[in-house]
């Protein structure tokens, strides 16, 4: 029986400009107090006094209310001099406001032009080359006030890549090249690179000094040099061999889409060594420099070297609905008269982030592995494949997004936004072996990662609305006008991504991909288990479940009639019979008030049917939801347990 592939979103013609830069902030007046004028009565720059029982002055990012003029050319370190004390409830919002202000007011063009001119003069034009950051980069740096992660700044406060970092990248790449080519150990390979980079341990005098001088690399002239707000959010944490859900967004700085000028200079008579060192440096920069290189950061490529030699998989994607977000851009302070406090109002910055894909692959790897293996073993396997702090590991898999862009911004959160189209992002997801991946395990890593990527695309979305498919809320009277997140693979004609219209045909493909995943898992980590006898990870009650695909979990494929602009499985989930006093049941749909609890139900809409994953399905209300779903469905098939 011939399969009819599902219609996939077509890439719109042309390219749209990236998100507009955040709204510029007004410079605080010398008198302090935000928009109200007058002096801050708190003594440290915010929130201290009030007028006639009204709200106190707005929080200010300044330590004192008499701020000396700060040049537009000043680096971010200049702003740190006036940072407010961290003893107010508004300190987190103030940190974001201050960082936003530093980015908006930065103007490094003159300084960067001088630095680039200096590099050309010292190295010579023939010994320089340009590289482009494929997404973001954060090199070196340290923790600043309020634990802000800062990239490397020079003495003037300008972001750059230190020469020592470039030398380390080239040297490490050279060592790995000798190890792979001649089957050497690290110590032996270090001796082979000594004629190029020097070594104080060498017995030969001529090998104690490096033959190539590395210069500091500065961004090409631009207003901020690429300095941009960024965000890290460690949502899931291991605790006593169990997982806890605890979002912890932490803003920091990185450089985005920067172009760097790299300069090298050989010692007299060593031009041949320069050519080889440059080749190693280009290869090392392409593999990644700085922190989080396996999560999409730090990839630097020349115009002629855009392909990653370690890449083994790529797929074009589109994401619709609630998008992947990074940092929050400060917009204003708002007084909460009920709680008697100022709250920062922010605007989430939509951005196709490779770390979001990596985190979701990690999530599904953990969920499927916990169903057949003990948590202590899964924790170790997860750290080896994706990296971890405890136990410390860099990870075997590198995830990147190429040409990621926001095609359509999310609707405005006001009445006018009701007529806006839903948000959309697209790009190309790539998977590659990291430098830490054992060569003998490459095939098993690739097979497991491909199967895991397929499962991720068909079990849910990405970002804030990942557990629900995209659906419209325009029949309501207030924003948001869209909820949920739908992830598509834009690979027409590729048998790997081809999907049938019939649920029973999808069931066969799903089982094949799932068996490929478990087979690769066994080969990669040398574990033996029976997928037809999944573990019972924990006892399940009405208000407790483990996000593991075990005996307590069910995955089904179903189709039925849509209602209220929602796919069948979602409209059933939101049925009034599953509400408590008119509100969604937190043990079925998740909750925010009274402690965040993610929903135990994932729904993915594949146009002609839905795939539903229910954790803790052995107890109500999840069990009752599946029962009603089966009764109402035109078609209902079980995908898990096998």
Fold and architecture overview:
Helix content is 27%, strand content 22%. It has helices spanning 76-80, 91-105, 109-123, 163-182, 186-197, 271-287, 354-370, 375-386, 442-459, 503-525, 568-573, 586-589, 622-632, and strands at residues 128-133, 136-137, 142-143, 149-150, 212-214, 218-219, 227-233, 236-239, 242-245, 249-256, 259-266, 300-301, 311-321, 325-336, 341-350, 397-408, 424-433, 471-472, 482-483, 485-489, 554-559, 579-580, 583-584, 601-605, 610-614, 635-640. Strands 1, 5, 6, 11 and 12 form a five-stranded antiparallel β-sheet that branches. A four-stranded antiparallel β-sheet has the order 16-17-13-20. A four-stranded antiparallel β-sheet has the order 24-25-21-26, sandwiched between helices. The radius of gyration is 27 Å and the shape is globular. The protein starts with 75 loop residues before the first helix and ends with a strand. The model is unreliable at 1-51 (pLDDT under 50).
